[in-house]
Amino acid sequence: MVELIIFVLMGAVALGGAVAVVKARNPVYGAMGLMAALFALAVFYVVHLAHFVAAVQVIVYAGAVITLFLFVIMFVGVDRAERLTEKLAVQRPAALAVLAGVLALAGVLVITGQFDWVITVGEGAEVRGTVEEIGANLISVEEGGVQRASRWLLPFEATSLLLIVAAVGAVSLAFYRPRRKEEPDDETAGADRPGRPS
Amino acid sequence: MDWIDVLLVVARVVAVFALLMGVCTLLVWFERKVVADMQNRVGPDRAGPWGILQTVADGVKLFFKEQVTPRKVELGLYLAAPMLAAVPAFLMFMVVPFGRPFTITLGGEERLVPLQGADLNVGLLYVLAMSSVAVYAVVLAGWSSGSKYPLLGGVRATAQAISYEAAMGLSLVPVVLFTGSMRISEIVAAQSSTLTFLGWNIGFPAWNVVVLAPSFLIFTISAVAETNRAPFDLVEAEQEIVGGFHTEYSGLRFALFFLAEYINMFTMSALAVTLFFGGWSGPAWDGVLPAAVSALLPTVWFFVKVLVFLFIFVWLRATLPRLRYDQLMTLGWKRLIPSSLVWLFFIGGALAVRRFGLPWS
Hints:
By secondary structure, chain A is mainly alpha-helical. Chain A is 66% helix and 5% strand. In chain B, 65% of the residues lie in helices and 5% in strands.
């Protein structure tokens, strides 16, 4: 019961923070939203008794990553509303198509009742586990965590692949410029802000 | 876990809160008195005996002062920043044990009461997490004030916090390696015996500082920097940037920043004592003295040790000139971080040899 209440509360915080990251007019509020979302995740880890992952989550993300974000925002001064015109024309339809695909996949899985996944192959037989088991084994550092992590190698590596895809995507989006230059570059946008070295 | 246990947990948390408030009040007075002494002044001497109630009077005054809100502030973050400063300051002390656990009989059951807010299995990481959260208060206060000097203070604070957090985290890794635990009560327990040197008990307490002196040095320097106190107080350097991040704050909002700074100073001293000087461990003379006195003595040892560190904090402030910005960065990145890495490498190798033997044997 307590777990459910925490889940609903923190889930709302995480979703609200995630929406704020995308929707906030002011990048500082966006960074704060990201921090709220990451804190909510840390609370989820604590609920699942993965204290180590929760502490590392706060240290790495809240302590280092978002502090750097704020530092950049304050120093470079990008705190004016970003232009909301899309640079990539195909972005929105592509995202919708991917979303539809994911939803369709989830629907098929729910209808067919397929809730366990092949987590490792070899040693004769394939091992299967549900999503909950995979999650619990990946974030736990209690006794035997390393051995189990090596047994659950496939989902672990799949997660890291996802992170690499996201990182590469972020870099390529940041470096993408349309051919025709209509407006000045982002680098000059905040020149009049205080705190920028001249 | 019945309701009495729940009440005990609540009582512990409230006790820590009350302790921190009381300590903060006394600490401000202590600092003003010691600095005054070092500068040949008298210091506060009107409110109460030796001016000991001066902080209370100042607190009441701040409580009733007008809270000015400048027109150009980002109101939401401007109001949130003082709370973001005070809350992590209180939370950080929650994992520090300040006395020996004692048993008490309540509801017909013997219950063990540790004198500690919470004994987490990742206590040390929790401390680092809270100290990294505390940075936000300064950064956001500086940015949301919508004014030049606070912004400069906020930018300085971010750079300083990022630099010295790394050194502080690295200086704590040897402690974890050496004691084999991140649970703070176990770190204290590991230091409660006496040292054996060449198979011969020399009667000196087995404090971590004996073996990990370089770690202790790096931790102390970065702790002073983390609390933004002199000589690392560029964040609020009066002569250059008025008051830094809290220039635009007044009344109770300013009081919260002030409170957080002194609590952080106390917590850092308590951590230095706990991690390197045996925490509350010390002779309790069980069976010789009455049981109540024996139970209380460890707390007394703890506070005596912490007082020494608080004095050092004040001493530094009274005597050292402020670092220049480039000196601050040089000290952090070119001295502290490399030396803590070298020391970590060395202690890791030494512990590996002790455990597994020499690689060629």
